[in-house]
Amino acid sequence: CGVFLVFPLSEEPMTCYIFSCKQLTKGDAMALWGGRFAQDAEKCVRDFTQSISYDKRLYKHDIEGSKAHALMLGASGIIPQASAEAICARLDEICGKIEAGDFKYQVELEDIHMHIESELIKMLGDEGARVHTARSRNDQVNLDIRLYLRDEILHLVDGIRSLQKALVAQAEANKRTILPGFTHLQHAQPVLFAHHLLAYVEMLDRDCGRLLDARKRLNVLPLGSGAIAGTTLPIDREFVRKKLNFPSMTRNSMDAVASRDFTCEVLAALAIFAMNISRLSEDIILWMSQEFSFIMLSDAFCTGSSLMPQKKNPDIAEISRGKTGRVYGALMSILTICKGLPLTYNRDLQEDKEGLFDAIDTVNAILSVYPHMIETMKVFPERMAQAASDPGLMATDLAEELVRKGVPFRHAHHKVGALVRFAAEHNKALNEVTLEEMKSVFPEADEAMLHVFSAENAVAGREVFGGTGFQQVASQIEFWKKELAGPENGK
Ligand code: ARG
Questions:
Q1: Between the CA of residue 187 and those of 81, 132, 183, 184, 389, what are the distances in Å?
Q2: Does 184 participate in catalysis according to the annotation?
Q3: Which residue puts its alpha carbon closest to atom 2 of ligand 1?
Q4: 76 with 135: CB under 8 angstroms?
Q5: Which atom of ligand 1 is nearest to 51's Cα?
Q6: C-alpha 142 – ligand 1 centre gap (Å)
Q7: Among 132, 347, 356, 357, which residue has the most ligand 1 atoms within 8 Å of its CB, making it the best to mutate?
Q8: Among 48, 105, 141, 343, which residue has the most ligand 1 atoms within 8 Å of its CB, making it the best to mutate?
Q9: How much is the pTM?
Q10: Among residues of the chain, what percentage have pLDDT more than 90?
Q11: Is 305 a catalytic residue?
């Protein structure tokens, strides 16, 4: 029968606890699972197995969950009501201490769950030692992550909505600005700059949709699953469900403690968001290059070179494009952690958090700068118009003119292709070809066909729903203004 001093629960010797002979008595203490162990863990093992260095960010949600659990234990008569109330009051106190930076973290206590429980026992003695009744860290940590993500997702969606608003404001300020649309990074057809920006608004809307959809699926109470199989004690999961405002609860305790697919979903949504941001970033980087000169970012959102005095670099866009890699990394990490894991909880799952937190921090960091960078971006409509005046951009319009004359499209495509070759061979731009020359390539040519080479007309002609026509885009801008004026997370 040994007495193992691991950490003092109080300065006051009389109120210290001993876990000795696998039994809790007054005196000193060791790790909360200490009863089974005859020897203290090596320091390097404690350092290796700890998660407190990163899971401490779950403190608020851990406390929220523990309070609901304690109240349920009290209401169900599993622990005295007075103990439940004392536990809740002390948990609030612990929360205050943590927020005041007054809380001591120590690797011996492994994770945030054990830190808070130990502190509770230190404050309340036997009453505190009742909080973990009918609960395991396996269902507790699962609950904490769900509570955390449920909040975080709303915050992320808020950030994405701000970025959408900034893009819509730029679209509205540039309603008539035309630039070349690209496919294969080659001039394709003229489009409105607003149309291009609204493409990102659409992509970002789906990002919000994916996050909110993942939120619906993770918004399920796992507590009550215990370590794996539930509990023999008469707990009331419905009570906890209501207290924590979960629409439903997990139906299978093994699934509940084993699964992190909700984390995979959130990370997949963040990875797709990062991918979308990397594309917007790439466009911005190209547009700001000397070759394009379509836009200029504000000085406040660029940095210079330590060597070349003339440099002004679009670093926010570049770093965001680069950060996409680490968000993908977090997704790959969680997928790999979960791959092939036998049911149910395995300690591998502790590795679920760092990547998740990092991805959330990364996306929040992007969202803390991106909307302002877009808001303050200067647009050069003349430069864009100049690039869009390339008559080659209207070759499709010419083919469509031929279609209007009854020529089957594939033939029209061929005829216009021949005209492009003719112009190139005669060293002319497409709009410099005369009517006679055009007629020599295809007899259907007429005067009207000489007027298709206007980017304005090309845009104006595309009033199909979803097209780049002026009215279409104006109504899309109105749509988004209304959509984004509503309650942020209501969708
Ligand atoms: N820190 C652990 C984690 O993040 C908590 C659960 C530990 N459970 C256990 N049986 N050791 O996963």
A1: 73, 65, 7, 8, 11
A2: yes
A3: 350
A4: no
A5: 1
A6: 9
A7: 347
A8: 141
A9: 0.91
A10: 86
A11: yes
What percentage of the chain has pLDDT greater than the value 70?
93
Mean pLDDT of 226-237: 98
Residue 292 per-residue DSSP state:
T
Helix (H, G, I), strand (E, B) or coil at 110: coil
> Could you tell me if 301 and 372 are in contact, meaning their C-beta atoms sit under 8 angstroms apart?
yes
Q: Which entry of 53, 289, 298, 305 is annotated as an active-site residue? A: 305
| C-beta of residue 375 within 8 angstroms of C-beta of residue 286 | no
For the cut 50, the answer to whether the pLDDT of residue 8 exceeds it is no
Across 150-219, the runs of DSSP E, i.e. the strands, are 178-183, 186-192
Tokens for 175, please give them.
Answer: 């309603």
Residue 26 has a CB neighbour count (10 Å cut-off) of: 12
What are the tens digits of pLDDT across the range 105-143?
Answer: 999 999 999 999 999 999 999 999 999 999 999 999 999
Tokens of 10: 């109080």
Return the pLDDT at 30: 52
Cβ < 6 A, ligand 1 pocket: 51, 55, 111, 137-138, 141, 345, 347, 349-350
CB-neighbour burial class of residue 347 (10 A; exposed 0-12, middle 13-18, buried 19+): exposed
Enumerate residues 6+ apart whose C-beta is below 8 A from 441: 415, 418, 419, 422
Distance 64 CA to ligand 1 centre (A): 18
CA of 269 from ligand 1 middle (Å) equals 25
